[in-house]
């Protein structure tokens, strides 16, 4: 296959000639992670095989195949598709960027390997937990007694770099871990290599008749600090991972021989969280033997009753709330914090609150007119479009300017 030189590529674009297939193939060989990082996006390395974008939890990178799949957008592809879908490049400009910029590495696509099992190494954890406790209690506002209890149970620990470590337990066995940095001027989040993707940090209070799902371990602990629901299992998906949500339901069934009575979606109040919730909240999970149908509820952070909380301490208004840690750290009165009663809405009430039916009809009509095939009106596309109406996002230019103005201390480290 012909490899085009830089001079030939320059001439081709200068003369605005049609792009030959060989040049498209050449562009596809650019190392995807290298392209992503040079575009200014932050990559979190989940394992030897997979990575994801810090800004988009559902954007998963397959390192060995030099490709990605973006669950929240129902998109997948190669470096060309990445530039077009994330950074609004045209097809021609994407080819030009990937081939005329000789800074990009060339990817070596490897044969797919089976993921190795997670190996828990206690020697990588410190006996000291003082930094982790100080961070959780004094910076993130987590209840001190709760932190002490989880440290005693070895579910929260600290590594030798003073990061908080959340241990994922399944049947009293550690099957994974995620880490949270404790330095305020540096961002550090990490899922430790080979952690079981179906699991997550979790707490069980009594018999797990109810399932609460959160996006992060900090969100989970923030909710429990204000309200610890009885007879419940609370699970962090470490992002928006449907496999963790479904696995948690299956695990409760394995333990109790019944599915949970209720699932409560306590995900972030933003486009990603809302999209995830709207796609999965209509799932009808039934258990024929017990004649039980799982009921779905919403504990959206932005739909809480903030009148009971007073004025926020740091946010300009409660309208800026994104997650439960935002709520926890903005309640000024300790007494109010201890008496907080979260608002949990059943699915139908929540739909009425956001005027779901009219939004659904409007979005469906719009997507149907624009559709070229059935994939263009998938359940995820509908959920995403409704979520975007509720949480309008900045355009690509504004995002790019925001990135350029972001502090140089931002850092997301690789998996160990």
What can you tell me about this protein's structure?
The protein is an alpha+beta fold. It folds into two domains: 6-100, Zinc finger, CHC2-typedomain (DNA Primase, Chain A, Alpha-Beta Complex); 122-405, no CATH class. It has 16 helices and 18 strands. The strands form four sheets. A six-stranded mixed sheet has the order 11-13-12-14-17-18. It is globular, with a radius of gyration of 23 Å. Residues 109-113 and 395-416 have low confidence and may be disordered.
Quick summary:
With 416 residues, the protein is α+β, with helices and mostly antiparallel strands. It has 16 helices and 18 strands. The protein has 2 domains: 6-100, Zinc finger, CHC2-typedomain (DNA Primase, Chain A); 122-405, no CATH class.
Counting helices, strands and paired strands, the structural category is alpha+beta
Rg over CA atoms, rounded to whole Å, is 23 Å
Molecular shape: globular
Helix content: 25-40%
Q: Output the number of helix runs.
A: 16
Question: Tally of extended strands?
Answer: 18
Low-pLDDT stretches are: 109-113, 395-416
Strand order of the largest sheet: 11-13-12-14-17-18
Largest β sheet strand count, sense and barrel closure: 6 strands, mixed
Number of domains: 2
Strand content: 15-25%
Mean pLDDT: 85
Question: Alpha-carbon distance between the termini?
Answer: 38 Å
């Amino acid at each position: 296959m012909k490899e085009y030189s830089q001079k030939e590529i320059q001439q081709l674009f200068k003369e605005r000639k049609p792009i030959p297939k060989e040049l498209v193939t050449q562009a596809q060989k650019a190392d995807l992670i290298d392209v992503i990082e040079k575009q200014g996006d932050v990559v979190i390395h989940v394992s030897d095989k997979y990575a994801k974008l810090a800004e988009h939890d559902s954007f998963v990178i397959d390192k060995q195949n030099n490709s990605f799949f973006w669950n929240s957008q129902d998109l997948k592809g190669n470096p060309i598709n990445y530039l077009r879908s994330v950074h609004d490049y045209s097809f021609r400009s994407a080819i030009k960027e990937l081939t005329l910029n000789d800074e990009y590495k060339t990817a070596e696509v490897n044969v797919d390997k089976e993921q190795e099992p997670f190996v828990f190494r206690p020697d990588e954890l410190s006996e000291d937990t003082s930094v982790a406790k100080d961070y959780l209690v004094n910076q993130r506002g987590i209840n001190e007694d709760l932190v002490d209890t989880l440290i005693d149970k070895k579910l929260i620990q600290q590594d030798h770099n003073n990061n908080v470590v959340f241990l994922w337990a399944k049947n009293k066995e550690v099957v994974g871990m995620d880490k949270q940095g404790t330095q305020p001027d540096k961002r550090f989040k990490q899922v430790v290599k080979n952690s079981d993707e179906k699991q997550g940090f979790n707490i069980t209070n009594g018999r797990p008749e109810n399932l609460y799902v959160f996006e992060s371990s900090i969100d989970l602990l923030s909710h429990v600090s204000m309200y610890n629901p009885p007879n419940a299992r609370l699970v962090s998906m470490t992002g928006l991972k449907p496999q963790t949500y479904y696995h948690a339901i299956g695990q409760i069934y394995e333990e109790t021989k019944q599915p949970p009575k209720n699932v409560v979606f306590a995900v972030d109040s933003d486009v990603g969280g809302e999209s995830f919730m709207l796609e999965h909240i209509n799932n009808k999970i039934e258990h024929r033997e017990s004649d039980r149908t799982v009921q779905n509820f919403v504990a959206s952070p932005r739909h809480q009753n903030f009148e009971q909380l007073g004025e926020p301490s740091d946010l300009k208004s409660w309208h800026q709330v994104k997650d439960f840690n935002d709520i926890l750290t903005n309640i000024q009165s300790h007494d109010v914090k201890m008496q907080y009663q979260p608002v949990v809405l059943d699915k139908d009430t929540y739909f009425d609150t956001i005027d779901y039916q009219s939004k659904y009809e409007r979005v469906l009509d719009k997507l149907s007119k624009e559709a070229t095939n059935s994939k263009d009106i998938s359940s995820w596309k509908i959920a995403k479009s409704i979520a975007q109406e509720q949480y309008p996002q900045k355009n690509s230019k504004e995002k790019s300017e925001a990135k350029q103005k972001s502090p140089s201390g931002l850092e997301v480290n690789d998996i160990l």
